[in-house]
Amino acid sequence: MNDTVIDKIWAFGFNEGDGKDKKLLGGKGANLCEMTQLGLNVPPGFVITTEACLDYLDSDDDALPSDLMDQVRQQMQEVESLTGKKFGDPEDPLLVSVRSGSAMSMPGMMDTILNLGLNSETLQGEIRQTGDERFGYDSYRRFIQLFGKVALDIDDEEFDKEFDAVKEKANVSEDVGLSADNLKEISERFLHVVSEQTGRPFPEDPYEQLEIAVKAVFNSWMGKRAVDYRREFHITPDMAHGTAVNICTMVFGNRGDDSATGVAFTRNPGTGENKLFGEYLINAQGEDVVAGIRTPKPIDKLAGEMPEMARQLEELRQKLEEHYCEVQDFEFTIERGTLYCLQTRNGKMNAVAMVRTSVEMEQEKLIDKKQALLRIEPDLLEQMLYPRLDPEAQAVSLAQGLPASPGAATGIAVFDADRAEVRGKSGERVILLREETKPEDIHGFFASQGILTSRGGKTSHAAVVARGMGKPCVAGAEGIEVDVNLRIASVGDTTIHEGDMITLDGSTGKVYLGEVATIEAEVTAELSILLKWADEIARLTVMANADTALDGRDALKYGARGIGLCRTERMFNDPSRLPVVIEMIVAETLEERQVALEKLLPMQRSDFKELFEVMSPYPVTIRLLDPPIHEFLPSENQLVRELEQLKQLKQTVVGMDVLVGTMSLLVDPLATNDEAEPVHSLADAHMVEEAISKKESMLKKVRSLYETNPMLGHRGVRLGITFPEIYSMQIRAILEAAAECEKKGIEVHPKIKVPQVCTAQELLSVKRLVDDIKAELKERLGQTPGFQFGTMIEVVRSCMRADSLAEEAEFFSFGTNDLTQATFSFSREDAENKFLPMYNESGILQDNPFEVLDEKGVGKLMALAVDWGKKTRPDLLVGICGEHGGHPASINFCHNIGLDYISCSAPRVPVARLAAAQAALSSAPRVPVARLAAAQAALSGEE
């Protein structure tokens, strides 16, 4: 640059920008600077900063910073000196690309313009310089369409209609078959489209083009698809704020058969294989590859067509990976036998590839174990647990495409993103079926189970975005003819209509009509290695929520080290047991209830024994009965309706008895058995009377148990104190099952957990039951099994009285679903169905607090409870068993406030194991939050 003094630098040349400052230069711009300074062959250019974007978006008059274009002109002069070309020169014009690039990679979510600088004069200069009229007009028509769409907001279809009309007139099916005259006509038609749609001629001044283009890229930061993408992937302003604009000298892959363009990954993003993966097209521009306009060739074939370029590409791959120590996704262009690297970024891969590359790159000494663990988003691991098509299923594929993103998906075919969004939100499973997808289809991706396109390759927009989301995708299924307007797709004689069920196998590229059976995924050897590293580093123990022995086996398969929550009420819901449970509930006397409980005791004991045997030697934490007992009974409306039907049946039965008696008088006593046809009663009147009596008893009990707000009513420990015989039966079943296991030499560690406690007196009341049963077992068996006694912390008051509760409890277990409801005074079901989405969208709440732990409110209560509880009992074990126990950010918070274990659903266990390791690797030393004497004095005292 020259020596002009400027107040703020809005633009940096590739040879001067700080490649580490992605917040300022965006990821793409920072990498272009870094590659340039590494000596890689990057076309000259410069970056306009994200600060310029934010300044522009904040302006009231849509004005760029006042001195920005002056700096752009200065930077353009530097590019001119490096290339020997001049921007806007009619003799030897410099053409540039204008690309977006934020700090966080958002593939295809913002806008790009190629070949900027072309006009009626520079076009002729480009044709003279290249000696290739066809190339010149091909570049010009591309520029007009991209500029028209991105900068002038003209619908692509307006250009496509003109393009297809010329192709049809020329009787050409492929773009490469168009002549220079055809492309000239297309360019003229495109200029007319611009004039007709905007009321103004296409801008001729290259600097005017550039200024409009820069504004358009800045505006794309707030475009719907970019906003949707940031929201879906939780990209906050702290992570990426505004987009940079990268202005780079154009190099052309469409200069002839010695030119090409392509996209490549340094390793396979679908499998993680340590081999160059990608696609290319001879005589094409980059947009042709990523947009899926032509189906590209696999990168392996390049060695046969351009052996020297293939060698240089492999060399580039090695340099990129060795420098960035990460799998790279890079774009390249070959112009007349010269290889250029146009951009690089960390490759977006699915979970299988991320896990495999983490393990193999550590083994290759490219990264260490810490980096291997930290480079994977824990939630990504869920992709590895998705079902896949059952190989035993006798399904015949309808079509074959490219396996662009693995996994199986079934849903109804929907042909546009808007309808996919609507039908997906209504609860239907949707497969988005298109010729090719575009960035503006992103909202349809979010709502779909999988993506199917008839055009495009493994690096097309559909493939890249689906892989990043972990959604199955089949791309380039060329046997499928898609008619978006008629909402049908044809494969030979078969027609798929919108609403028809189809199945995709993103691992093989096959498409099936109807639903195909799936089987569970398998844990790979690399995932086992990675999670073993995670367990070695994590401080938090990861357990699972499991209610049966079968659940326990699943939990062990996922690597759980115990059960943090066994919900005994789930055992009561077994259809074979429900009648006994109902008998217990409707009992009018203690004696009647005890009879039912004696029937339930062996059932519960058997359940616990089987669970202990499966989970040995790990701990099993059993929560005593929690929900209101009316939940096990039919609703009042149902019982009233059934009683009416039974009473009607009673009248019918009485009538049938009269009929039977009458008909018996009409039978000829001399008739043989074959001749006589006796009339039978439809039902036993006594049986109907008995059914009515039972239903009336149930209705009476349902009405007596009615509560205005049952979730805050007679449940949990309150139920156990009112009906101590229920908790006594459960406690006895737990301890007898443990004793039987110990007698067989099976190591068991039962933990009895009391729900909904708000005062130490409640806990003490249940503990007396435990002590009485323990003493009885000791007298009867000569010994009692070891166990721990603890409490759920899910009531605000229990947090405030944690020091007192810890006198009786050996462990705390946070139930953060109920604690969140109590803290916010939200009913979860009502909140999520009514106002909570609006709260999130309007920014009143950043997250759904039932999915992401509310650190500022609920989290503070938890921190207080941990500190006060451990002050009373230093060896107190504290864990979490709510839904938040499987959420990575919440796990990090749990680590930081000193929890000892987390418990989540079994399929989330691998996610939690990795998140626990990452928390240990990235956490700061814990600082207790509740050591103030004033707070202790204010909050201590009598119950």
Strand order of the largest sheet: 12-22-21-14-15-16-17-13
In whole angstroms, the N-to-C terminal distance is 74 Å
Overall spatial form = elongated
Structure classification: alpha/beta
Helix content: 40-55%
Instruction: Give the uncertain stretches in residue-range form.
Output: 1-5, 924-943
Radius of gyration (Å): 35 Å
Question: What percent of residues are in strands?
Answer: 15-25%
* Integer average pLDDT: 88
Largest sheet: 8 strands, mixed
Give an overview of the whole structure:
The structure is a single chain. The chain is elongated. It is of the alpha/beta class. Helix 13 packs across helix 18 (525-537), helix 19 packs parallel to helix 22 and helix 34 (888-896) crosses helix 35. The protein is built from 36 helices and 31 strands. It starts with 10 loop residues before the first strand and ends with a helix. The strands form 6 sheets. Strands 12-22-21-14-15-16-17-13 form an 8-stranded mixed β-sheet. The protein has an 8-stranded parallel beta barrel with strand order 24-25-26-27-28-29-30-31, surrounded by 6 helices. Strands 1-2-5-3-4 form a 5-stranded antiparallel β-sheet.
